Protein 1
Amino acid sequence: NAYDFHWDQYLKATGSLSAPSDYFRQSKIPPANDFKVGMKLEARDPRNVTSVCIATVIGITGARLRLRLDGSDNRNDFWRLVDSCDIQPVGTCEKEGDLLQPPLGFQMNASSWPMFLLRTLSGSEMAPAAFFKKEPPKPPLNNFKVGMKLEAVDKKNPFLICPATIGGVRGDEVHITFDGWSGAFDYWCKYDSRDLFPVGWCCLTGDILQPLGNGGKIINSYMFLCFIEIRSNCFCGVMVNVGNIGILFPASIAGRTTRNTAKTQ
Ligand code: MLY
């Protein structure tokens, strides 16, 4: 399909650079994901980071796990890399002399927690310690530059990893913008966030890289169909890149009449 997204074509068509992989807090070779749906582990409660809870693997996506805290509801699932320091084998807490906590919003009476825990763990499959990988170290400096391309988690839809661009750099923070989407999904985060990945990450891990937002589609390696919103009118055209210079042709000339607006929801 001519509209499939390919980084190499897209980088060429937009005349942009990808951020080098050593700028990221990710291992060069993505960690293997050996987990299976249903396995139990210990996870830091994302809504209450001082407590460690029991979680179940609900899904597998690339090098990430979709997790649900036992005793919690199904509306607060979260995603973690298999080399995240937020997850550990069942028994780690006890070994360190800590107690497993009920998740925030535990659905039962707090007094029933010890019994609940016992029932949850008995007969369940624990993820083996070897499945948990060591978190890579922080790169020493924030080297990101405005305009560099990457793959980033959409924090409003954290199951999605999308083509993104560095929109700003401020100290140890970077501004993440999503290609083809209006600013509604942008966010600032630390340069060493585990939600940022080098170009090609999804391809290596088998995670699904989202297509560009409505704003852009590749036609071929040199042409980049783009939609620009001028005030409330939507202008549709074809961007042809010659070196670093982009020339925008109106859709009528380009032979396309599609009207489009950037999605925001
Ligand atoms: N609910 C939205 C999802 C938007 C995702 C935007 N990300 C990829 C930046 C929709 O269905 O359009």
Note: The first helix runs from residue 7 to 14.
Protein 2
Amino acid sequence: NSTAQIKEKPFYVTTPIFYVNAAPHIGHLYCTVLADVVKRWQQINGKEAYLCTGTDEHGMKIQRAAAKEGMDPKSFCDLNSDKFRSLTYDADISNDFFIRTTDPDHKDAVSQFWLQLKHSLPSQLGLYKGSHEGWYCVSDECFYPEDLVQPSIVPQTGKKIMINVESENEVEWVKEETWFFPLTKYKEALLKFYDENPEWVKPANRMQEVRDWVENHLEDLSVTRPVSRLNWGVSDPEDPSQTIYVWVDALINYITKAGYGSKWRTSTEDMGIWPADLQIIGKDILRFHAIYWPALLIALGLPPAKGILCHNHWTMSNRKMSKSLGNVVNPVFALQRWDVDPLRYFLMRNGNLTRDMSYSNDIIAAIYSKELQANIGNLFYRIAKPKASAGWSTKRAVETSNSGAFTALDMVKDKEEYQHFFSLESFLARTADGVSREMADYNASGAIREVFELLRETNRFITDTQPWVLAKQNETLSPLLLNWTIHRSAEALRIAAILLQPIMPSKMKRLLDEMGVQPDRRTVAYAKPDTDDAYGTSNEKKNINFDRANKHLTLFPPTV
Ligand code: ME8
């Protein structure tokens, strides 16, 4: 039936699931906020969208961390997983799922995936058992080839150790019997997949890195550990001497919440929200997501995610912020100090996909005062402050505009001396498109830049049109020009607030509430001038009045 509508698959975005060996830091918050911004952006574009985050709780790293604390692994995981979960509340993350790899539904999904790998593949493409020796890094939970390992000395103790040259974490020599996934047999399939999806990993240099790795360094993957060394994990249902490798376990999280194992197991069924539209990861875990994960899915005839966004790292004094290094910023304190939305704003503004980013309270303080207070806060205050006696009423300005009285301005449109009254128009018209273009590349920083150009331009516009002078003039055109100035500034603020909702959800909600913008008119479709003819009026029920007392108008209060 040609009239039958095919329901569009909801947008699905994921973050990595975080190791619970220590508390969360600002790097974890960063990628979770980015995922939240992507999800909220879809929503204000009218799409149904889902976000999955959570914690990675199995493996040797966690087993050892728990033992060090003298705790049983599950209690240890409960304690630390809660810290990540409460961070999502504190930071206003709109996640739909918070997965824990110790959840029964996930462990079940892992077992099923495992059995499918073992039994549904032709023998040369399926799992095989073999013996394995090599350098294993517990901190990174992976083996490294000989050429990526070198001796090092622990500064504090003088102890001689072997480390991986990239992560600088300790490696140890391990020899064991395990199951293998014949990754090398999937080389052609992976390269074909990359060829067909040349922008699969963004940014482009990361895609190239992946391709180089697949072309030159592919090895079969050891996908279990002997239970004697690793017992904290999902064990092979048919071979209890083996525990499934933590990375295989962890990657499956992305399909668990999409219903794999409980609602579907093959691509001929309705896979719900899978494939994910976007998987956000840090550069440290690119190989797992861009090589192992698609290979495992391709093996079972399941589609890989539609795209991967790989970001760089936050640093402190030029070193990667990491739990193992102990140079971390505690996001809970940062949220208390700066408030949720300003911190989200900073992370998105200074976040970067291609360079490492540096965290500094001085920079946050400067951005807070120069951008949030001086631009958006100030603009809000300027156009909403009560000066009704002098005609500063946005309500009236909007009404005047809507009643068509602005056609009077047509008379002056071509006159040189009135040009500055129209200087904002091109910004009003194009900002939403600019933001959409940036967000198509998931570039929140670029999106912020576009909005702030509009805001800066608006403050300049007000300075040029001098509404305070117009308010005192008795010329025929003055009231019209005054209302025009206020109305166009209000339009700029309304558009900016709509577009910034994903980044600062609660501040922008307040701003839009204060402006009397109806909840169903806060989508990107309304982020164009003259699309909303109903805001700016007071809403008796909610007691929202655009001409309220000054003290309510401070969006970004002074910080301590
Ligand atoms: O790797 N700057 O978990 P993890 C920015 N459990 N982002 C950072 C960061 C930093 N300094 N440090 C960490 C794991 N991240 C696995 C993932 S997924 C199936 C399993 C972010 O706790 C970044 O996104 O080490 C990185 O990829 C992720 O946290 C790793 O978190």
Note: Residues 16-19, 27-28, 30-31, 56, 250-251, 253, 281-282, 284-285, 313-314, 320-322 surround ME8 (CB under 6 Å).
